[in-house]
Specification:
single chain; mainly alpha; 0% strand; rod-shaped; membrane; transmembrane helix; transmembrane; DUF4190 domain-containing protein
């Protein structure tokens, strides 16, 4: 056996830092999900708060916040229109008034 020194170890390659994924705004996500589920007023409020936070912090989620606001308002307007149409149809059929004496 020879008394040779161990072979030199090559220097370690520097590890490239992993790009930190941008943080998502939680309120924007929650507002969007709630607007899909049907909690429209809460979704609108969370959408506006999330949009304000996204502008201040630069987080991701601006589109989700805007979508929560739009879906919430459109759902409320459609609900009002459908309610008016429903009661108008009931009134037209005469089921709302009692005409039998």
């Amino acid at each position: 056996m020879s008394d040779l020194p161990p072979a030199p170890v090559p220097p370690a390659q520097p590890v490239a830092p992993v790009a930190a994924s941008e943080k998502w705004n939680v309120l924007s996500i929650v507002g969007f999900v709630l607007s899909i589920i049907g909690f429209n007023v809460v979704a609108i409020v969370l959408g506006f708060i999330g949009l304000n936070q996204v502008k201040k912090t630069g987080e991701r989620g601006r589109g989700l916040a805007i979508a929560a606001i739009i879906i919430g308002f459109v759902s409320i307007v459609l609900g009002i229109i459908l309610t008016i149409v429903f009661f108008s149809a009931l009134a037209a059929t005469g089921t709302l008034t009692d005409t039998s004496y």
